[in-house]
Amino acid sequence: MINNFKILRILPFVLFLLIIFVSALVLYQLKNEPKNFKSIKSQLIGKNIPEILIPEVNYFRSLNGKQNLNFKKFQNQIFAVNFFASWCAPCRIESPIIEELNKIIPVVGVAYKDKFNDTKSFLNDFGNPYKMIGLDEHGKVAIEWGVYGVPETFLINKKGKIIYRHAGPLLYNTFKFEVLPLIQEK
Amino acid sequence: MLRNINKVIFLCCLVLTISQNTLAANTSNSGKSFIINKTREISQNIKCLVCQNQSIDESNSDLAKDLKILIKDKLKDGINEEEIYSFLRDRYGDSILLKPPLKTNTILLWFLPFIILIFGSIFVIKFLKSSYK
Amino acid sequence: MIPEIGHVLLIITFVATIMQVLFWIYNMKSFNGFALNILKKSSLINFLFILSSFFILTYSFIVSDFSLLIVSNNSHSLKPLIYKISGVWGNHEGSLLLWVLILSAFTFLVSKQNSVINAKLLSSIIGVQTLILGLFLAFILFTSNPFERVEILPLDGRGLNPLLQDPGLALHPPMLYIGYVGLSVSFSFAVGALITGEINKEWAQQIMPWIIISWSALTIGIALGSWWAYYELGWGGWWFWDPVENASFMPWLIATALLHSARVLEKKLILVNWIILLSILAFSFSLLGTFIVRSGLLTSVHAFASDPSRGIFILIILAIATGGPLILYALKSSSFKEEKTQFNLISKESAILINNLFLTTATATVLIGTLYPLFLDAFNGNKISIGPAYYNATFAPIMAPVVFLMAIAPLLNWGQNKKTNLSKKIIFIIIVTFFGTICLYLIEESSLFALICGALSIWLFTGVFAGIATSIKEAKIKFNKFSHFFFFIWKTNLGIHIAHIGVAVFLAGVTGEQFYKTEYSGRKNIGDIFNVGDKLLEFKKIEMLDGPNYKSQTATFTISKNSKIINTLKPEKRFYPIEKSQTTEAAILSGFLGDTYLVLGDGNKEIGWSIRVYFNPLVSWIWGGACLMALGGLVSISQNTKSRKK
User: Fold this and answer.
1) Most buried among A98, C138, C196, C374, by the most CB within 10 A?
2) Do the Cβ atoms of B9 and C235 come within 8 Å?
3) How much is the pLDDT for C47?
4) Range of the domain at B63
């Protein structure tokens, strides 16, 4: 086959067809599922919650720094973890939706690279939609969770496995069409 | 004669490829500067996820800074390069690496250029030979 | 009212192209000079209509006619005039109009060559060009109309991305498009040859200027983009193997291979099929680049607004414009008569052929690196990133032999190599390179990669000088004045030597910037004096200044060496209120031997500001080298025309 230079005449066209065909497939997929191409899928889906301890903060009683978030409280229910920050503008937009979510399942908030007083002011201004709040002052917790920006929201199932991650503000449509169905499934 | 020249060119390519793949920025092994240099070397290979087209070494973003501190701390604790890459891949996925890992689904990526070169060379050799008669 | 005229002009031109193409096809068999005349005149009309349409669009931008969607999305009344104009092509629709304008201009210019190119070939060329013009006009009219109106008239526009408000970047698209679109001419030459069934050395001579113009323009366009990134983006990076950058690089690599192969064809009727294939591929890569950038396939700093439906349209254009000729190629390429000559191994043709192999493989490598993540993601959802490390391991070793042979090829003869002390010359080059590399190693200890790059640059420099020396010696002329010397070199191969030196200069610049750069970063406050390398920097002051459409926080640093102040650096952070964005303007001191690059980060009076200082050796050689390459190309064109008149 290699001896035949004739193959050199057809090869370009064949390769070209291949590229066109695959590009068309990619475009077709892109049209139908734009989201999958833009966001990074979390590597933690299907895995247990990261083991790293998150200091708990409470704005009524000061047990700050003395206690860590206890996820075992939610052992047999679905709950959510929401990474947020006082300095994050989209977090303010999603705050009402998080409040709605908190009425259905417990939501744990983790303040990312924030200061105790700033978070307190933020929660005072926009409301506190969380059952528990943790403080990730240096961003080490976020890295363990594969978080690359705020806000991000995770859903954890009854067995303690992460089943969903949404990067960016949790807008109403995402809440209704992606998050709620997952909660209702279990 | 033809075969020899092509073999030489081929060998040059091979040498260059191997040397590229073992780039050494600095051969110094003394503690502190080794960690600093190694951090930079690793950082140059980690993508900044919140930037457009920068490694965390080049970027000034918060996430980049945090990851650099993380890498430095891990190096200080004696964790080796491979484990650091695994650590980051486990949390952020393969796309955080700027040098695609050699896995079954990237074999084509890494070898196709050289396969093309080999087949191309064979064609050229045959062509030169046939016209030489 | 006026924009509607612009729109109508495009519609008329589109309809005209359909008629022209049908006319051409109808007259293909029974050829006559009358048909060629009609095609010539119609290409002029196409050009004039599209030019008028383009002027109307530009006018709308200049007077800030916000009733046009394109103007309200991309412009603002406060923008400086020059950026209102460059804003015309700083968006998807406008840049496409520029694309077809350049295409129609090229078609018109080629049509005027009827005294040189034979009528059958020329009418095929015009026919193919017009067909492509029609396809793109269809794309504009059906998916990307620049003259679309808004529904509600806004008070002012949304402004232009501040990053794009820059002279370098204003010029970058037109240059690139001249390059991309210019390759359509060589494409049409090739398809014309397939259609007429004829190809000869004259064909190669006629196609040469068009290849060189496109290649030179593409070189400058790419260099402008890199230069802009270097000074604008704020960390001294100039090439990221970004898919859009690769999209411009691939046609360039193919055009380089084409350029050299056509030179061979000018001398001997060989490699005919290969050259036709390359001509088709060069423009096809331009089209592929257009597809990648505008189809929504990628999110990139460069990519225009993503829209998959546009992507499908472009894919169809690509299928027709490339698939068609490739089928034609598969069917007809064996019918060309070639010279039955010996391909002597030690000859210029062989060197060029081997380099073609490496250049094409390098192009394929870049294509693989660009498309692989996309295809892998679509296939099984795995996302990978491909950064410079991949290309350093694949592209670089494949290109190294190209540079290696580039130095030797000018020393070889066409055909049989006569006894010209070739081995002596090569030994000379080896010795110089060896010692040069050792000097490099002694100046600063560096990695193997760095030494190889440096060695290749020295090798190429030496090779070019050996080539010049050889031509002088062979001519056996004594030069009394420098002008004699200059004109002699001009008559022989000046263009080639300049272009090859350009590559050597470029390579030296890359070596210096990549491997020998030093960096200092820290937090400094006003009044701080600190050492960086062998220089002393003093942070003098920081102030808020006003620009035409931005506010700037400007810091002033003085830089001294040996207790003497040699310069002042003013890095800035600019805030554009309308677009609500911020840019970092680095302070750059460019010198022949390198740049000092100072970037201002975040901070305030209490804790000081974070600053980064880079010393980038030889970085201007990167842009300088590219300019030399383009200059060499243009000089060659003048040599070309001279030799044709003989």
Assistant:
1) A98
2) no
3) 97
4) 26-101
CATH number of C1-165: 1.20.120
Do B110 and B97 have their domain in common? no
Pick from B62, B91, B122: which is nearest to A144 by CB?
B91
Position A37, amino acid: F
The answer to whether the CB atoms of B12 and C601 lie below 8 A apart is no
Examine the domain organization and report whether B40 and B86 are in the same domain: yes
DSSP C424-480: HHHHHHHHHHHHHHHHHHHHS---HHHHHHHHHHHHHHHHHHHHHHHHHHHHT---S
Interface contact A26-C375, CB threshold 8 A: yes
Q: Are residues B109 and B90 in the same domain?
A: no
Residues B87 and B121 in one domain: no
Q: Which amino acid is residue B17, in one-letter code?
A: T
How far apart are alpha carbons C583 and C606 in whole angstroms? 23
Which alpha helices (H) appear in C159-242, and where do they start and end?
167-196, 201-232
CATH number at residue B53: 1.10.8.640
| Residue ranges, chain C, pLDDT below 50 | 301, 644-646
- Compute the nearest-CA separation of A125 from chain C (Å): 25
- pLDDT tens series, chain B, 133 aa: 444 555 566 666 666 555 544 443 334 444 677 888 889 889 989 999 888 778 898 888 889 999 999 999 999 998 989 999 999 999 998 889 998 888 888 999 999 999 999 999 998 988 888 876 5
Same-domain pairing of B48 and B69: yes
Judgement on whether residues B94 and B117 belong to the same structural domain of the protein: no
For residue B14, being part of any structural domain is answered with no
| Cβ-based contacts of A29 with chain C (< 8 Å) | 378
Instruction: Write down the pLDDT at residue A1.
Output: 45
Judge: C273–A9 Cβ closer than 8 Å, yes or no: yes
Q: Chain C residue with minimal CA distance to B13? A: C397
As a whole number of angstroms, the distance between CA C280 and CA C284 comes to 6
What are the percentages of helix, strand and coil residues in chain A, rounded to 5? 45, 20, 40
Q: Which residues of A176-185 are buried (b: 16+ CB within 10 A; e: fewer)?
A: eeebeeebee
CB contact under 8 A, C312 and A20: no
Torsion over CA: C528, C532, C534, C537 (sign): negative
Residues B41 and B88 in one domain: yes
pLDDT block averages, 10 residues each, chain A of length 186: 69 91 83 62 87 82 70 88 92 90 92 89 88 90 91 91 90 86 79
| One domain for residues B83 and B112 | no
* Chain B residues with CB-CB distance to C387 below 8 A: 45, 47, 55, 98-99
Token reading at A167? 């990067």
Domains contained in chain B, number = 2
Cα(C89)–Cα(C99) distance, integer angstroms: 9
Task: Given the cut 0.90, state whether the ipTM is greater than it.
Answer: no
Other C-beta atoms lying within 10 Å of the C-beta of residue C311: 24
